[in-house]
Amino acid sequence: MWANGIQQSTFDYLKECYDNASRVSDTVHETLSKLFYSYLVVGGMPENVFAQNLRAGGL
Question: What residues contact 30, with CB distance under 8 A and at least 6 apart?
Answer without folding.
Answer: none
